[in-house]
Amino acid sequence: MSLYTRIGDGGETRLPGGDKVGKTDARIRTCGELDEFSAVVGVALAVGQDERLADVLATSQSILFEIGAWVAAIGMPGPRRIPQGLASEIERLEREIDELQAELPELRNFILPGGCQAGAILHLARTVCRGAERTLVELREAYLDATEFETVLPWINRMGDWLFAAARWANHKAGSPETLWPLQARSASE
């Protein structure tokens, strides 16, 4: 099988069922955002993460691939399948967030993304996650009959929360201080 099909040369691509759609189709854009999120998670894994974080990140890549397959099939006849066990993954993320937060100092200011390499990349993954979440919300508006969004959207939302907690935890563990956004200093000088 050839890697190139030339279909994309004119700005179109094929969905798994064979339908030809424009590359600006909401399903294609959403699959692209999910793929970008998965790629950034891959970078986060490549730079090295604590085993505790790496397990969640690796699991999330598999889930993202399955969600992408589900997105590509929206609007097509036949059953659509979301990843099995997504509800339990949401619960797992919530437990992990609570455990990570318990080890961190209380946050009273906004923080700027950064810190050690592992923490900074987790912050980047969080922002890409939120972009994917926004495109999923837009897609839901186009496919209101797809009830699977009731599980998919909470998972990706919780994943963004987990990435924030994980970035803070990675920085804390590395002894890399967080850069607080100087909200009080700015308002006092204005």
Radius of gyration: 19 Å
> Topology as H/E string?
EEHHHEHHEH
- Uncertain runs are 185-190
What fraction of residues sit in β-strands? 5-15%
Number of helices, where a helix is a run of at least 4 consecutive DSSP H or I residues: 6
The total count of strands amounts to 4
Ends apart, CA distance between termini = 63 Å
The biggest beta sheet is recorded as: 2 strands, antiparallel
Summing up helix and strand content along with how strands pair, one would put the structural category as mainly alpha
| Mean pLDDT over all positions | 85
- Strand order of the biggest β-sheet: 1-2
Give the CA-based shape: elongated
What is the element layout, followed by pairings?
Blueprint (H helix, E strand, L loop, with lengths): L11 E3 L5 E3 L3 H21 L4 H23 L12 H17 L8 E2 L4 H26 L6 H26 L4 E2 L2 H7 L1
Antiparallel strand pairs: 1-2, 3-4
Helix pairs in contact: 1-2, 1-4, 3-5, 4-5
Short descriptors:
single chain; 190 residues; mainly alpha; two-stranded antiparallel sheet; 6 helices; 4 strands; 63% helix; disordered C terminus
